[in-house]
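Reader question, answered in our methods column.
A reader sent in the components of a multi-part assembly and asked whether the whole thing could be modeled at once rather than chain by chain. We filled in our standard form and ran it. Here is what they sent:
COMPLEX SIZE: three components
ENTRIES:
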Amino acid sequence: MQTKRMTFSSRWLPYALLAPQVLITLVFFVWPASQALWQSMLREDPFGLRSTFVWFRNFERLFADPHYLAAMKTTAIFAVGTTFLAMGVSLLFAVMVNRMLRSREWYTTLLVWPYAVAPAIAGVLWWFMFNTSVGIVPYMLQGFGYDWNHRLDGTDAMILVVIAAAWKQISYNFLFFLAGLQSIPQSLIEAASIDGAGRMKRFWTIVFPLLSPTTFFLMVVNVVYAMFDTFGVIHATTEGGPARATNILVYKVFRDGFVGGNLGSSAAQSVILMAIVIVLTVIQFRWIERRVNY
Amino acid sequence: MFKQSLMAATAMALVAPAAASAQTEIQWWHAMSGRLGELVEQTAATFNESQSDYVVVPSYRGTYSEAMNAAIAAFRAGEQPHVLQVFEVGTGTMMAAEGAIIPIYQLMAEHDVEFDPDAYIPTVVGYYTDPDGNMLSFPFNSSTPILYYNKDVFEAAGLDPETAPATWAEVEEFSQQIIDSGAATCGFTTRWPSWIQLENFLALHNLPLGTEQNGFAGFDAELVLNQQEPLIRHWENLARWQSEGIFKWAGGNDGPDAGPTFYSAECAMMMESSAGRAGVMANAPFNVGYAMLPYYADVEGAPQNSIIGGATLWTLSGHDEGDYEGVARFFEFLSTPEQQAWWHQNTGYLPITQAAYELSQEQGYYEANPGADVSIMQMNLNPPTENSRGLRFGNYLQIRDIISEEMEAMLIGSISAQDAADNIVERGNMLLRDFESSLQ
Amino acid sequence: MVQNDRFGTFLAHLILILGVGIVVFPVYVAVIASTHAPGTFLQGVMPLLPGSHAIENYSEVIFQGRSTAGAPPIGLMLWNSFVMAMMIAVGKIAISLLSAFAIVYFRFRFRIFFFWIIFITLMLPVEVRIVPTFEVVANLNLLNTYAGLTIPLIASATATFLFRQFFMTVPEEMLEAARVDGAGPMKFFKDILLPLSVTNIAAMFVIMFIYGWNQYLWPLLITSDESYYTVVMGIQRMVTGADSEPLWHLVMATVVLAALPPILVILFMQRLFVKGLTETEK
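And here is the structure of the entire assembly that came back:
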């Protein structure tokens, strides 16, 4: 893990600075999470009246279920699609807006504004827009001769949830890309243009590398978002269907645990999810961060 | 200004609970939103005005599953409400939670509140009684699926707008005529596919979904729906009709797309809960007809009777003994004919007592609202049998998800109807065994 | 070169206008829906032009309170949402700035251990570990309090991660210069690091304010006392529920109203972005 080459030294100050966050994390995250770990090895009724310790039965059951393994693949496709779309589009917007002088504020407002819509409501809006009977999108696609039906076509359904999930993240990414672009010293870019580098070349050789801490931050945030925070969108649009085509891992946790009340299995699924993310985060920090320029 | 509103808000937060604490409070968590939410508030207010010992405090807790989970989480932390509204598929879970619930027959007996189970409509109450006939929870809002159809489209297609299809053969025939005439592009759609095209389908044809009287006789029940030939035939038809455009799938679980499909006159018929009547009337820009669900005429015993859905009120344990006196009084109030008739007529839910049904008849409600009694007649077609009393399976919510998934796979065409039914049985039985062993 | 640049600017505008069109479209749909008569949206392909019922719908929501359906008045719900959003945004930024500062600018024992403890919380959203978290809050007697509403949601590492990433890009020379001047760590933090972070703090504030404002499931669980209801809970109460078709025109009008405060926050915070820009161009 990197630090600055030069640091302050104090025996107590860093601990004091960390204390509030560590305390909140321990009480409201680590403690409940360890209880989830315990629960994943129990077979329990929802009210917690009777429970049996079953060791790894819940996990064995999951890994023996072909649908659970299929959900992992679905999750990977969904997460990659959402992250790529959300980051690509917002980087494009941020670079374009950053060129503007007078209109910059206008574009920023317009692009950030959709973020203010509550996710629960955004789900309903997507449901309306893609509704096969009254939705505007299927209606327009029909004009191009495409018969849209996310209720029975798995690919259509996947496209729908990727767009809906990425949409919510565009404003977020845009804001940080713009903040990142604005903290790049103008002098560096000017120097490059004196050397005669074209716009594209300047972007890829100077701007993009300087932006890499932001890109790295957003990549982690987006992957985590796509894998864990998207069940609301899926719940409002496809409910994991048709025939599990959009049933990603976290939606399954939500559905089995929060809706279905099957705590043991749901806790086991949470633990697997946690393990996946820990591995992902370690990989990201260990491998990608080495190549990130500071 | 800013400061004032801050102070006002703080003052409200401080004063509000204090003002009500003179009487015993009964917490009632429910999942009724919109207009139904207003009617719930009104119900509580009427009860609170009728006596001075208890105050029922209704609290909206989100959707059915959110409310149930909130209450379960609260129970585990010792903060549960007295009364909780639970949807019918949660019945198995609640029933099994011995120690967390107080069965209503016991509650009423302990507090000497007069309680005559025979006064209730058998098909409504039957769903919520144990094998000995004891009522476990209070059927607060019940409904049953019926057929809604677009009279204008029927007329445009040259059909008699007053005659709805009675059998599935007629559904196909009428739909074909509607599509051929260009009056609409699709015949019918359905909400709640599992509830309507499986659970009610089997009840109407007097066929079992599972063993042990559909789970009523014990949690060792197993699913047997894959052995019911009429169901397999019906699902094969659904798949064929879907590909021919006669049927349109509106999504699994609650079939969320069915409403717009029907209201936009794309499909001429919709199968939906009787409690959806107010919504249909408010949103359909055409004349709506109401009819019973169709059946296959060659199946012996069909049509039997349909089963209910909706929710009941469960009493949760763990409060002061005195509080439960109030809960019992509240249930007594809810079952009075006047209150029942008022609730039934304003919400569209079924009346749960014979007296409330008769009172509504006297008041001329069904003459003024044609179609409002289709559901009651369908429920009362025949005395319920073991197959048409209802369902009581554990983990049933997850099983319903499996049913939606497999039906979708069948409609996409990746598996046959028989395979879909076999998969449901195989995966469902595993969940049933899980539930059974969690009780030991 | 100049010719080329003009074309580039034109192209950029074109891309942005198209992009804004697509990104804003769902919101536009909500606004349009709030101006139509009941039922219009379910009866045919949705209209794309405003209807004639705007005044009716909005006055019904604001003055007749149809929107609340038994919930407390909309003013109180807006206030609760505001308090919750502010506490989450400010709390999160404050604790994250401090911890990111500690992680980047100090070397101490267990640094990596603490780092991982914090970053693991990036992962699971509250909904997935909701039952155990609820039990902790209940055991601490925080049900029906603003503290219970907000503190558990502050326990997330996104902001810490962002500030850590940002601090890593701050040139080493800054620290060297500060040390030559004899500045202590807190003085360096206050006089140099904070002013540099203004743009990022503003971005974080916008994001966190909206995050707090839009919370639904957590407040629903934690508050059974209606005086703590938030406006998104009020909206949800109009939308979800068994056996009732939502009154979409009123729902959408409420949605538009509820989105106004966060939009004001965005507009206000934008000044800080512009400020950040002028500073770098100096």
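What stands out: The two ends of chain A are 14 Å apart (CA to CA). Chain A has a mean pLDDT of 85.
Send us your own complexes using the same form.
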